[in-house]
From TrEMBL:
This is Atypical pikk pi3k protein kinase. The keyword Kinase applies. Residues 1-140 form the C2 PI3K-type domain. It comes from Lentinula edodes. CDD domains: C2_PI3K_class_III (cd08397). It holds the Pfam family PI3K_C2. GO terms for molecular function: kinase activity. Belongs to the PI3/PI4-kinase family. Keywords: Kinase, Transferase. The keyword Membrane does not apply. Coiled coil: none annotated.
């Protein structure tokens, strides 16, 4: 994802193509982000507006994202893709920031049983756990969580041999 141009390392020229899909059929034409020359980080910070209203979206609606790298004149290679379901388990529109899993080297497929899902059920890692805590903090739930923890603190003891606090 780096290019050597004149001896200096710069980031590759990437762009994203996204499309609304429902029941394995496209709802809109694919939309492409505008070209930007990236220097230090990939930050698009760009709004994408689809020509469809929320009330017209089927509950099976998904949005596909495919990141492309410009491989040469008139050619591009997929960096990765993902498919994000717009409605959650309770059939409400998902809002806010989301961490999307990018499947390397393949385009997003947009199928009902997608080969490029935006998250894997049951998979947890430290970064995912921290992001959940940040979301709680941003939603104001962190304060309630901390108040509960302060009301019911866990006992601790100090052992001089290990010089660590041990929680019981």
């Amino acid at each position: 994802m780096f290019n050597d141009r004149g001896g200096s390392r710069t980031l590759s020229d990437l762009y994203v193509i996204c499309q609304l899909i429902a029941d394995n059929k496209p709802l809109t034409i694919p939309f492409r982000t505008v070209f930007q020359a990236f220097k230090n980080a990939y930050i698009w910070n760009e709004w994408i507006t689809f020509p469809i209203r929320y009330c017209d979206l089927p509950l099976s609606s998904q949005i596909t994202f495919t990141v492309w790298d410009i491989a040469g004149p008139r050619s591009a290679a997929p960096v990765g893709g993902t498919t994000f379901r717009l409605f959650g388990k309770k059939w409400t529109l998902r809002r806010g920031k989301h961490r999307l899993l990018l499947w390397p080297g393949i385009e997003a497929d947009g199928c009902v049983d997608s080969a490029t899902p935006s998250k894997i059920p049951g998979a947890t890692d430290e970064m995912g756990r921290l992001e959940k805590l940040v979301k709680k903090y941003e939603r104001g739930k962190w304060r309630k969580f901390m108040q509960q923890k302060l009301r019911n603190p866990k006992p601790y003891s100090y052992t001089s041999t290990s010089r660590d606090l041990t929680f019981q």
